[in-house]
């Protein structure tokens, strides 16, 4: 197989499935440290209501859980939330695997302005972006250019700034099999 064909196939795979970046030693060490502190006992003792409030303030702008939240990022309700490794890898290192469906695009408009979001749909006449405020449709005739990032739109370092009890609360809430009442 020629180098040209390999490059073309690699480009096609990235456009369809997304980007897989190698593990960073620093990220791996951080995830290992978190995993050792998030024991079955510490998660069972965590404050689920506080975890729900943290999710609402930190995550729900982009993510939906139990029918509540934003549509910019993946809906977490049906994901592998019950698996600690899955959660830690995706939260602590959100850029390690970026699905093509969730790559951030900057759309530069001919009037000099720009819009950013996830490309949700495209026709010959329009492009629809999912933005934190909701969907936005742009006429293709108004578009000067589009830049798509290989990075995740989810910020890295979220768990690094939370105190251990809040980290445990958020993770325990995410792992909980049903919605946690606030009252």
Provide a descriptive summary of the structure in words:
By secondary structure, this protein is α+β, with helices and mostly antiparallel strands. Helices cover 38% and strands 26% of the residues. The protein contains seven helices and nine strands, in the order αβαααββαββββββαα. The chain has helices spanning 3-17, 25-37, 40-45, 48-58, 84-92, 158-161, 164-175, and strands at residues 18-20, 64-65, 68-69, 97-99, 103-109, 114-122, 126-131, 134-139, 143-152. The strands form three sheets. A five-stranded antiparallel β-sheet has the order 8-7-6-5-9, with no helix packed on it. A two-stranded antiparallel ribbon has the order 1-4. A two-stranded antiparallel ribbon has the order 2-3. Strand 5 (103-109) and strand 6 form a beta hairpin. The protein is globular and about 55 Å long. The mean pLDDT is 88.
């Amino acid at each position: 197989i020629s180098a040209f064909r390999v490059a073309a196939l690699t480009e096609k795979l990235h456009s369809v499935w997304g980007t897989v970046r190698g593990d960073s030693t620093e990220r791996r060490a951080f995830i290992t440290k978190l995993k050792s502190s998030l024991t079955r006992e510490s998660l069972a003792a965590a404050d689920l209501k506080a975890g729900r409030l943290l999710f609402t303030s930190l995550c729900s702008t982009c993510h939906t859980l139990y029918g509540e939240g934003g549509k910019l990022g993946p809906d977490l309700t049906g994901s592998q939330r019950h698996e600690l490794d899955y959660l830690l890898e995706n939260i602590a290192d959100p850029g390690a695997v970026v699905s093509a469906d969730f790559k951030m695009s900057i759309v530069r408009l001919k009037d000099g302005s720009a819009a950013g979001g996830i490309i949700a749909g495209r026709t010959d006449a329009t492009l629809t972006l999912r933005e934190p405020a909701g969907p936005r449709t742009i006429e293709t005739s108004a578009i000067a250019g589009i830049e798509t990032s290989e990075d995740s739109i989810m910020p890295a370092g979220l768990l690094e700034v939370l105190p251990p009890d809040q980290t445990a609360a958020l993770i325990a809430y995410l792992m909980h099999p049903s919605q946690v009442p606030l009252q």
